[in-house]
What does this fold into?
Amino acid sequence: MQDFLIHPETQLGYVHYTVRDLDTQIDFYVQTLGMQLHWRRGDSAGLGAGADDLLRLTERREAQRFARTTGMYHFALLYPDRRELARIVARLFDSSTPNAPTDHVISKTTYLDDPEGNTIELYCYSLEDGSFETVDGNWVVSYADGRPSTGRDPLDLQALFSHLVEGDDLYTPMPESIQIGHVHIHGNDLAGQMHFYNEILGFKRGNFADKIGFADVELERPHVIAWNTWVGAGAEAPPDNSLGIRYYTIFQPNQQALDSIRGRLDEAEWAYEELDEQLRLADPAGVRLRIGLQ
It folds into this structure.
């Protein structure tokens, strides 16, 4: 039995990226995805759905993209239901934005890239539609009626769009209930990262599909932090002048919960800095994260 569980009200917070062109990126997230610009100061900005930031961007014109390094595979925005997912997917098609609608059985989703190649997943849960589990190191996915699935089937757009009604405005702002549903990391060591997220930070162990190089951890819902070794086991972290992920955030509901994590890091002798009431550290793949209060 797991000896430490992170607080069940733990939430993922905003993701912070380094970008080359802040104006272009802001325009994409506002005009294409319907985010609001919450603030802009100098070379940085915060965006979201009107409440807490979901995304922060900092411009570095000299930054570069480095191939086959660890970092963010994608971050995922969790929509409240199929109707709101249908609205944004229809909006993407209406604006001729390339995207890849996919049926993961337990979620309906689409993937797209921002102008600098950062991948975003937009999804809602559909847990009643079937199961998605790991057996002998592989994914085993099936629909509720027993049909097998690859877990990456094309999404039935006709069924999704049936949740829209005549007169629905596709260009409404992003619903305020949107949250960061999960982050998926390009890692370098499945077992090492599972030890960190499960045994040290206290997330629940989820899938461990070592035959396909994928693993994840859970909260009260599945697939909250995931990682893979698809850029290569032992891949190195990118240098500081890289485009892409600067860090992502994990929020605790109270000081006691944050203190418990600090204690776990101390016990494991895991390096971190404490600044502005946040614990600043990196996972085993060198992906930076910050743990603080909501």
